[in-house]
Amino acid sequence: MTEIKDSNIQIIQGGICAVEGVKAAGIRKGKYGLALILSENSYVAGTFTSNQITAAPVDYSKKIIKDGKISLIVANSGNANCFTGKVGINDNNEMVSLSSELLNIPKDKIATASTGVIGRKMPMELISSLIRKSSQKLENSKEASKDAAKAIMTTDTVFKEFAVQVTLKNNNVVKIGGICKGIGMIAPNMATLLCFIATDGKIKSEALQDSLKIAVEDSFNMLSVDGDESTNDTVLFIANGKSENEIVDSNGKVDENFQEGLNYLCKNLAKKIAYDGEGATKFLEVDVFGAKTKEDAKNVSKSIVNSSLIKTAIFGEDPNWGRIVMAIGNSKADIDPKNLSIAISSGDEVVDFVKKGNILAYDETSYLKEAEDIMKNREIKIIIDLNQGSVSATAYGCDFSYDYVKINAEYTT
Amino acid sequence: MTEIKDSNIQIIQGGICAVEGVKAAGIRKGKYGLALILSENSYVAGTFTSNQITAAPVDYSKKIIKDGKISLIVANSGNANCFTGKVGINDNNEMVSLSSELLNIPKDKIATASTGVIGRKMPMELISSLIRKSSQKLENSKEASKDAAKAIMTTDTVFKEFAVQVTLKNNNVVKIGGICKGIGMIAPNMATLLCFIATDGKIKSEALQDSLKIAVEDSFNMLSVDGDESTNDTVLFIANGKSENEIVDSNGKVDENFQEGLNYLCKNLAKKIAYDGEGATKFLEVDVFGAKTKEDAKNVSKSIVNSSLIKTAIFGEDPNWGRIVMAIGNSKADIDPKNLSIAISSGDEVVDFVKKGNILAYDETSYLKEAEDIMKNREIKIIIDLNQGSVSATAYGCDFSYDYVKINAEYTT
Prior knowledge:
Two copies of one chain form a homodimer.
Chain A: E1 9-11, E2 23-29, E3 32-48, H1 56-64, E4 69-79, H2 85-103, E5 110-117, H3 124-135, H4 142-151, E6 160-167, E7 173-181, E8 194-199, H5 205-217, E9 234-239, H6 256-275, E10 283-291, H7 294-306, H8 308-315, H9 322-330, E11 341-346, E12 349-355, E13 358-359, H10 364-375, E14 379-385, E15 391-398, H11 402-409
Parallel strand pairs in A: 4-5, 8-9, 10-14
Antiparallel strand pairs in A: 1-6, 2-3, 3-4, 3-9, 6-7, 7-8, 10-15, 11-12, 11-14, 12-13
């Protein structure tokens, strides 16, 4: 997870506060938490859950970012403020009003996000007190980024942040930093995905939105913990231009290195979420090659990463490749069993089960030991070649353990 | 599960052998089993998995039933004969040849089905020996139906059979009986759905196929254990006409009572599968009312019955209705949160969480005790009213327990 993509992208410390002009703060109290991210007069882009039922802050932030600029993000954990009707809308507005007053920021420059239990009243007395305290702690520091990342955690076991320094095509340098929480895209009720990213590059909302959409498609949208999608998923990307370095050229094209840096950052945050998947004991990456279309490649990789039977086999360290065949067949992709190749890998070791339709693992004994050894690793890669075209995709996930059941059976409030 | 639908449908004993002219046999040896179902010169209909990768017996039986008539079904458990290439096709043909020889039945009147591990060679010596022994045990008896039902079990914990006697509109009487196995529609690798149904009514293949399709749509197709669909799912329905009673009138219309009886039988077999879902401790029924279209009603009920987060909450006896909101929102159905009603029920007890968008369970204390009491039951019903139209649907499933993980993590061969 710490490989350096290429010489144009360098991993740096500091999370979202690695970016000049960004201040953060975070406080936790019991199962509740509150984070503030301040970056004055920043262009903003966002992607949100596709669940038909959305939380009050999702509806609110979608509207707010249409203006193109914000200065503050207020995010709470512990309560999703979803399916809470007018009361929830008022509570969300109160979060905005109070922050506006305390930090002297216009209300329409404040976005909100929430994560937690659905269908419960927000504990506004506590939330307000956390906003007051956080507003006095805002600073640009490594600690502040960590505090904010910790404040938005729910069932997460570790806080999640990542930052890169990107050398643009014209050799100028910009930074991108982010924090996120969640134990699935795709796992509501105290496990929503929230992600806040900032850059000091100069880039306006429209280009920022395009750039974010590309990065999210191959990262957070390729992530699965349990196949359920939250009512609260929110990714916000802000650009304050403090570096004075332009990201978009005179033809309106986003700098390639910037896009690569953002993709890399989002993939790394997504991987951190998969690593920390609810009850996860193993990280699963599914690489699909040789698809006719991008959609096919994504369908196959997601079908595998979502399969309960594959996820339990990974947990049991059982190289049961028949289940991979089943999951490939269940995808809507254009496939031909006669062309299919299936392998598993970890580190440098690879075991081929099927190569262009020929079953190498037909006789149990020949592969079982080697494959079982690979399954013992913490990071497992399933590699599929459809041999139908030249498009590829990667999905990220984790295994399905006793603890997943425990966490979700014994947990509401 | 034993209520009598109405006076035209009476539950009877004997499983598939409740039907005159049907002989069955079954033998188990370790993790392998073999069942024969003999009903000479019977019209046949079938529905099969929609997985793109299909087992050798699925491909074979699809072709065989096109002729319209069969006399014998040969089914094995322990090996799926899937992704086994030419060897698998030969092994399937050998099952047919041997049965043909032993029972003096033309090869093209024999259908096959397999369930078990994918991508392994069939143990043909054992299978052949089981076919030989079974062929000498064929008889029309309660015991024979049970033996066949037991022989096709894999991770099933109980054998599954059901039979009804139907009084047709013209007061004639026919019987329908069936056996099935599986712990999900929708759960491959030793958990495929296989179902064999017979009737002594007079009905030809085309009408039989239409009738079966209707019954399967609202039963097996509304069943979910883990959302994965097998490569081997097979439902075969045979009609031998022994009763001499016509099911189809002169206008080509299938007798309504017959259709109702078949629907009832398929629903009861589907419920038995849900009850016996891998690791299941609770049976879950999701009734959705007030949808605009049948598709909407099905989408919402399936989205709920498939949700890992709801299934773990049911296991944990946690009335976490926020997760139901999430699952409804995740369906593609036409919904309006303001019109939504959500309740849970068991037996005569009902607790409303949300009524036409008004949250009755907003304040935890008011509903928690009652709802928690309901959750303690073995059979849980989730009742949704979308209040958008007048169409309804019901889905069947079970909870998600530690044992589901255990069964699927520790099990291949």
